[in-house]
Write a structure and sequence with these properties.
35% strand; 10 strands; 2 domains; elongated; single chain; 157 residues; 9% helix; mainly beta
Length: 157
């Protein structure tokens, strides 16, 4: 299955075997052993790659400034963000997305990491469940802070 779903080699038609003879021209013909390795690497990578990366500016009305995703990017797939408490922000990505082949996928995020991008020292924690990412921002003493005007990056898979 294409991302954002995790795959295994059977999703890519592997394992394959050569038909009676090895490839005639190694510059134009793909050997089954090589294809099987490629399918295996791609499938295993699909389990560890980030599904979405969101950059946002904190404030009373936080703003998503950019995002990248493994699904088809359109104006309808921009994550929404709200401030839900002091130093707490909730990002929501669409529950269902399309890949570049128009296949539909349910977003099921399992983990997230956050980081601060500015000169101010911040501790950022993030958690993801389903299509929701919760971001927590703290000062270095451990107190929740709004960090108004500061920029943060969150990656989730």
């Amino acid at each position: 299955m294409p991302l954002p779903d995790a795959s295994n080699i059977t999703n890519y038609g592997a394992p394959k075997r050569n038909y009676e003879i090895a490839p005639v021209d190694p510059e134009t013909d793909l050997d089954a052993i090589e294809y099987n390795r490629l399918a295996c690497d791609v499938a295993m990578s699909s389990r560890m790659v980030d599904r979405v990366e969101v950059t946002f500016t904190a404030g009373a009305t936080p703003t998503v400034t950019s995002f990248e995703a493994v699904w088809k990017k359109t104006t309808t797939t921009v994550p929404s963000i709200v401030k839900t408490g002091t130093g707490t922000f909730t990002l929501t990505v669409p529950l269902s997305v399309q890949d570049e082949l128009q296949g539909s996928h349910t977003v099921n995020l399992k983990s997230a990491l956050g980081s601060a991008t500015g000169p101010q020292a911040r501790h950022v924690q993030a958690a993801a469940t389903g299509n929701v990412i919760t971001v927590y921002v703290f000062d270095m003493a451990g107190a929740s802070v709004d960090a108004t005007g500061e920029t943060f990056v969150v990656r989730a898979r």
